[in-house]
Amino acid sequence: MKYILGLFVFIFSLSLMADGRVLSDNAPEDKPVSSTGKAEMDAFFKAQEPYNKQALKSFPQAKKRFLAGLPSGENFFLTTRLHDNLGGVEQVFILVTKISSGVVYGIIYNDIHTVSGYRNGQKYRFPESDILDWLITKPDGSEEGNFVGKFLDTYYAQ
């Protein structure tokens, strides 16, 4: 069986979504990363586990802030993985619109390169148990969270 595996991790650049939300000009640039080997993919997932744990430990407080209403210009994103029927995997940001009864509702906020059946701007929902990381973006380009993204800046700089 041939595996089609891929991973794209994105740090945001200026983007305008259909709902009119804009990320700051000062936001970090996209840094797509891909892998086609299962061993490399498994190593990547293992390497990011401590950062997933750190993100999940702090997620309840971030979720509470989102549910209470973030200040104008701030956006809440969660990271999860999309899977397709060919075995493809892609890690993406979801712009969160709602969290209710353990389910996250939002919009895929990445161009899709590896998995089929998904597209940027598509509505998507997934269980909170599939969260890998969280991110709050600010109008000035700064961010909170993004534990995995910050790790990846060093992991792939080597």
Question: What does the model show?
Answer:
This protein is of the alpha+beta class and 158 residues long. Helix content is 25%, strand content 25%. The chain is built from 2 helices and 6 strands, in the order H-E-E-E-E-E-E-H. A hairpin with a 2-residue loop joins strand 2 (89-100) and strand 3 (103-108). The N and C termini lie far apart (32 Å).
Structural features:
alpha+beta, 6-stranded antiparallel β-sheet
Topology readout:
Blueprint: H1 38-68, E1 75-83, E2 89-100, E3 103-108, E4 123-127, E5 133-137, E6 143-145, H2 147-155
Antiparallel strand pairs: 1-2, 1-5, 2-3, 3-4, 5-6
Helix pairs in contact: 1-2
Helix percent reads 25-40%
Biggest β-sheet description: 6 strands, antiparallel
**Helix and strand pattern:** HEEEEEEH
User: What's the N-to-C terminus distance?
Assistant: 32 Å
Give a count of the beta strands, DSSP E runs of length 2 or more: 6
The best one-word shape is: globular
User: Low-confidence runs (pLDDT<50, min 5 residues)?
Assistant: 1-22
Helix vs. strand class: alpha+beta
Quick overview of this protein structure:
The chain has helices at 38-68, 147-155, and strands at 75-83, 89-100, 103-108, 123-127, 133-137, 143-145. With 158 residues, the protein is an alpha+beta fold. It has a six-stranded antiparallel beta sheet with strand order 4-3-2-1-5-6.
